[in-house]
């Protein structure tokens, strides 16, 4: 369960708690408006009916004729039902205030505890290491030969391969260019040999402010749509406010499957290249 889902559940739970608390206070303070019920007294009803007839026969006189009960009826008087309102225990204003304060204080403590728990869960989820799979772990970008065939076009131009799970652009680089480049001695090139170019995996974000970098095939480079930083297809800085080359990940080859493994947990930074390994631009810009 994600942190956002837990946050929404916490908000709903806090809202329900507040509603229940308000209803509890309202019911405690409100008047008991329910009807007063008791046993139905047939004798009293007959007496009332007789009194009404007597008034009608006497021309409005106030005398009331009382009908004697039948001889076979039990005339034992019954006590009137108790009045619930009279038996209710009244709270003083001071007591009522104390109860209300206690309720709201406890409600605030519960809500604060819910938010604190959500923050702790979110922080734990952020700091918890990913034991397997996902960004931050080794990602299989695919078979090296298949990647080369997809990236290098028949006319020699490059169309970078984007690997979403690794947040990386995969590009080729001739091994002969590596010793004189800013990548010499770094584990950022793998999969070369037998005259075939090696491969690199560059992080898709711009090193200026972190915008996502799209590729621009016409110019053979990466061009930031946010602030205009530009890099060639080897991620070397060309222009704009970016302070260095594109960041890249360490890579290695899985010998069993001949696959390129992108180590997304190892980000490697390089300064602006003094000697470029690929020309830029080679065509019109995309921004």
Features:
31% helix, single chain, alpha+beta, 6-stranded antiparallel beta sheet, 5 helices, 4-stranded antiparallel beta sheet, Rieske Iron-sulfur Protein, 287 residues, rod-shaped
Description:
By secondary structure, this protein is α+β, with helices and mostly antiparallel strands. It has a domain at 138-268: Rieske Iron-sulfur Protein (3-layer Sandwich). 31% of the residues lie in helices and 17% in strands. It is built from 5 helices and 10 strands. It has helices at 3-29, 42-57, 84-87, 93-127, 144-151, and strands spanning 138-143, 161-163, 168-173, 198-203, 215-216, 221-223, 230-232, 237-239, 248-254, 259-268. A 6-stranded antiparallel beta sheet has the order 1-10-9-4-3-2. A hairpin with a 4-residue loop joins strand 7 (230-232) and strand 8 (237-239). The longest helix has 35 residues, at 93-127. The chain starts with a helix and ends in a 19-residue tail after the last strand. Mean pLDDT is 82; it is low at 60-65.
Judged by helices, strands and strand pairing, the structural class is alpha+beta
Name the shape in a single word. rod-shaped
**Main sheet, how many strands, which sense, barrel?**
6 strands, antiparallel
Write out the CATH superfamily name of the domain at 138-268: Rieske [2Fe-2S] iron-sulphur domain
Q: Beta-strand level of the residues, as a percent range? A: 15-25%
User: What is the averaged pLDDT score?
Assistant: 82
CATH fold annotation of the domain at 138-268: Rieske Iron-sulfur Protein
Number of helices: 5
Spatial extent as radius of gyration: 42 Å
Write down how many β-strands occur, each being a DSSP E stretch of 2 or more residues. Answer: 10
CATH class (first level) name of the domain at 138-268: Mainly Beta
Distance between the termini: 40 Å
Spatially, the strands of the biggest sheet line up as: 1-10-9-4-3-2
Poorly predicted residue ranges: 60-65
């Amino acid at each position: 369960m994600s942190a956002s889902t837990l946050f929404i559940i916490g908000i709903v739970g806090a809202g329900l708690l507040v509603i229940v608390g308000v209803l509890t206070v309202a019911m405690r303070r409100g008047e008991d408006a329910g009807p007063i019920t008791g046993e139905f007294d047939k004798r009293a009803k007959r007496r009332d009916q007789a009194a009404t007839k007597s008034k009608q026969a006497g021309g409005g006189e106030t005398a009331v004729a009382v009908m004697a009960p039948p001889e076979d009826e039990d005339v034992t008087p019954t006590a009137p039902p108790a009045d619930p309102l009279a038996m209710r225990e009244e709270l003083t204003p001071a007591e009522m205030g104390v109860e209300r304060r206690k309720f709201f204080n406890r409600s605030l403590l519960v809500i604060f505890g819910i938010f604190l728990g959500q923050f702790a869960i979110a922080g734990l989820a952020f700091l918890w290491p990913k034991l397997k799979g996902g960004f931050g772990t080794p990602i299989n970008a695919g078979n090296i030969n298949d990647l080369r065939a997809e990236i290098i076009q028949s006319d020699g131009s490059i169309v970078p391969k984007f690997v979403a799970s690794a947040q990386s652009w995969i590009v080729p680089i001739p091994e002969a260019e590596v010793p004189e480049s800013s990548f010499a001695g770094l584990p950022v090139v793998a999969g070369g040999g037998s005259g075939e170019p090696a491969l690199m995996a560059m992080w898709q974000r711009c090193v200026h402010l972190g915008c996502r970098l799209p590729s621009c095939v016409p110019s053979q480079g990466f061009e930031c749509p946010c602030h205009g930083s530009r890099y060639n297809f080897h991620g070397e800085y060309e222009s704009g406010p970016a302070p260095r080359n594109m960041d890249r990940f360490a890579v290695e080859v899985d010998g069993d499957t001949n696959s390129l493994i992108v180590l997304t947990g190892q980000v490697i930074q390089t300064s602006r290249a003094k000697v470029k390994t690929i020309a830029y631009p080679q065509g019109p810009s995309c921004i």
